[in-house]
Structures are given as C-alpha cells and as structure tokens.
Amino acid sequence: MVSDDIAMLPAATLVRLYRMRQLSPVEATRAALARIEAGDPVLNAFIHRAPEEALAAARESEARWMRGAPVGLVDGVPTSIKDQWLAKGWPTLRGTKTARRDGPWDEDSPAVARLREHGAVLLGKTNLPEFGWKGVTDSPLAGISRNPWDPSKTCGGSSGGAAIAAATGMGALHLGSDGAGSIRMPAGFSGVFGLKPTFARVPAYPYGLLPMCSHTGPMTRTVADAALMLNVMAEPDHRDWLAPLPDGRDYRVGLEAGVRGLRIAYSRTLGYAWVDPEIAALTDAAARVFADLGAAVEEVDPGFADPRVPFEMFYATSIATTLKRLGPEARAVVDPGYARMADAGARFSGIDLIEGWAAREAVGRHMNAFHQRFDLLLTPQLPLAAFAAGLEYPEGRGMTSWFDWSPFTYPFNWTGQPAASVPCGLTPAGLPAAIQIVGPRYGDALVLQASRAYESAVPFAMPGLSHIGAGRG
Predict the structure, then answer these.
(1) Catalytic annotation on 318?
(2) Region of 327 on the Ramachandran plot (φ > 0 left; ψ -120 to 50 alpha; else beta)
(3) 102 burial level (CB within 10 Å; 0-12, 13-18, 19+)
(4) How many CA atoms lie within 13 A of 272 on its CB side?
(5) Which of 42, 333, 341, 445 has the most neighbouring CB atoms within 10 Å?
(6) Candidates 3.30.200.20, 3.90.1300.10, 3.50.50.100, 3.40.50.1100; correct CATH number of 4-468?
(7) Which among 273, 270, 195, 269 is positioned nearest to 234, based on CA atoms?
(8) Is 82 one of the annotated active-site residues of the chain?
C-alpha cells in the first residue's frame, strides 16, 4: 500500500523525487486519493471527485518523467480546483442548485489551463458556499464542509474545501479565490498557508462574485509550494482584460532572503477591529518572531477608517445582480442568507456606488502612502478561532453577518494588495490561529519572502486524519 506519508509531501519535494526517479506521480496520486477516500466522508471537501481521470493523468506524467521530459513546473503534482473555476469536462456548479449540470463544460479558466499545461494531476473540484458569498463553507447543494482540526467547527470559506484538502493531504496544490477573504479566512481557520496575490496578478475568467476585488491564488501546506504554484498561475491569459503584463518573475527566487532590515508595522486591530484575547496573544508572539529575525517591527495602525460600509455595498449589489440574472424562480432554492444580502444590495443606487468607489480610492491611496514608510503590515488574520460548523457567525456574540468577524480581510481586497494568511499556532482548544502579512501592490514576492521567514522559524503544523477515525495508510 502507498505510504500515507507521501500524501503530505510538498509539491516541490514531489517534483524533486520524480526527477530522481525515487517516486512516481502514480504513487503520489494514489496517496492523495486515499486521503480523500478516508477523510472526505466526514470533512466534505470535494463536490466532484475524478479518481480514474487523475490516475490516467498520473500515468501519463510518469511516462514523461521516465523519458526525462516533464511538460512543466508541477508535472505529476496532485492538485484540486475550487468549484468556482471552469475545468473541461467537469460541471462547475458553484454550490448552487440553480446551476445546470449539462454544460457544455468545454473550457478551462485561466489558472486551471495553466496548471493543466504544466502537467498538474487534477483530482477534482472543492466545495464552496453558494457562489462563494460568505466566509464559511456550506451550501444548499453540497451541505456542510468541516474543519480538519475539529469537524464540529467551520473550516471557513469560501475556499473551504481547498483549505481542508490542503491541511489533510488531499493533494499538494489547491486553487482558491478571494473576493473578501475567501482564501485567507479558510486558511486561517484550517491552519494552512494561503496567498491572495495582487489583484489580477493571476488572470481570472469568468470573474468571481466581486469582479474588481476578487483575487485568484494558491492554498498550500508550505510557502515554497505557493511560490511554485504562483509561477504557474501568473502566466498570461488574454481573457482577463484587467490583468497586468506578466513580469516573468520566478517567485521562488529570493524566498530564503529573510526579513532582516525590513520595516514592518504590526496592527493588532487596524484601529477599529476587535480580537479575542487568545488570538491576540498568538499574533503578538508571531510579531515578535519577525523582530527576532531582524526586522524593525513597530506597533502602529495604518490609519484608515473601517471601509466595511462602502465595501459591503458593492458586495451586496453584486449578489443582487447575480440573483436578478437567475430569475425569480431562483429565490426559492438559494441560501436564505444569500437572498437576504441580495435584497440589501438591490436598495443601492448608481450614485451610491460611485460614492463608494471614491471611498475605495481614498483607502488605496492611503495604503500606497503607508507603504512608503513600511515594507509590510502585520495583522491578525481572523479575530476569533473557528466556531460551530453550519453557522454563518457564532451564536451568542451579537453578530448578524459574517462581515462582523472578518474585519482584517476585506480592506485589502478593496485596495488590491497582496496578503497572506500564515499559521501562527493553536489556541488552548487546539484550533489554528493565523497572522496576516500585507504587502504593497505588486509586492507579492516580498509577502512570500516574509511568510517563508516566519515558516522557517516556526514550522507549520498539520492536523492529519486520525481524529476522525482514519488510520495511516
């Protein structure tokens, strides 16, 4: 039987072992599929599994490696795709009962196309809430996805299935998206690394829930794997007319350069947010690690007001537009919370949206100026640990929306900056916490470099599957 340990190997290690002919893509794919078979019945990470297709692709990759002719950077690496993105031959249902399964499904989204061109072995598609609308992962179509550290808790969202898969070895590389925190929130709750690159650094098509704020990015168990995956996904695609010209950068270069001499701001609350004490203690300790590594760390807030009101207006209006396009019959089958937010969005006018855009411009300019003083900004990633699965927000805390517990995520979708969720320890209850590393626009390499410096000092822990009854393979 394939060793269960293979499932937890990083993509970079897999590629090295393939090159040395010490491991086969078929073995790696079987290990990932075994993990899916063992864990998915409880955790519900995947909405579409394709084991036979994956093994066929792995055998083709094995033959290429045996000839010494891999087709790309991730040839033979087991990979999952968030069900927001198109993948040839597979239905893209986006967590909604309103989607038609009959397609035609004859096109790959840009990141999927690049991964396929580079030889990635696609395992299937991972769960998300309906149209990715909220920060937890449950949907009328696919049910509740659960935290890999404690299945009674939420895994976060909307890239929740990808976070579960990353944490538990259901593949090495995982494609997510982030319109208001949808990579970083599940990465934070589930204890994996997630990168929201600079807006449009990774081409997207079709656009996600919030076209001018949604970012495409990697979710992985190591920073080096995220850099490797970003190299692949950042290649150009003509379908995204907002994408900048590719810079041809290899994001692995300089990854080990450390943080000595960097000017880093640490803001515990952004000047307006709240944080549970157990999370603040862990992120305070993480900020001290950067100082220990030689960075000049200063406790300072960035100085902008909470942009939630204008941001949520755009968010709700986008949802209202989608629901309108679906027609009146859709209301009966969509998530009630989705319909509620659509109703809120339908009340705004064009003038409201233009005024909101002005607020966005102000925050963006403010952060550009802030990064003249500081190379990076550190914050908590989330103000609380994972709460009960199946809920939009924790009970008994006076909340009415998932926006109430996501104050550190949406501001940096608003500004388009790169931001990473970096695991920084466990709460007394054994649930992950994370620190957020925010860089200036197009400072993706610096965010990865700082994330790797922290990972080197404080290696990331992963949960395994033993707590849900899965033994070792």
Answers:
(1) no
(2) left
(3) exposed
(4) 12
(5) 341
(6) 3.90.1300.10
(7) 195
(8) yes
Residue partners of 100: CB distance under 8 A and separation at least 6: none
Catalytic residue among 61, 80, 82, 267: 82
How many Cα atoms within 13 Å fall on the side-chain side of residue 105? 16
**What is the predicted pLDDT for the residue at 472?**
32
Angle, CA of 123, 85 and 56, to the nearest 5°: 25
Positions in the chain whose pLDDT score sits under 70: 1-4, 469-473
Sign of the CA dihedral with 306 first, then 308, 313, and 315 last: positive
Catalytic residue among 145, 159, 177, 182: 182
Q: What is the pLDDT of residue 342?
A: 97
pLDDT at site 473: 31
To the query of whether residue 401 is one of the catalytic residues in this protein, the response is no
Question: What confidence score (pLDDT) does residue 209 get?
Answer: 78
Domain ranges across the chain: 4-468
- pTM as predicted: 0.97
Give the tokens for residue 327: 């027609």
Per-residue burial over 369-396, b if 16 or more Cβ lie within 10 Å, else e, is ebbeebbbbbbbbbbbbbbebeebbbee
Q: Which of 145, 158, 159, 267 is catalytic?
A: 158
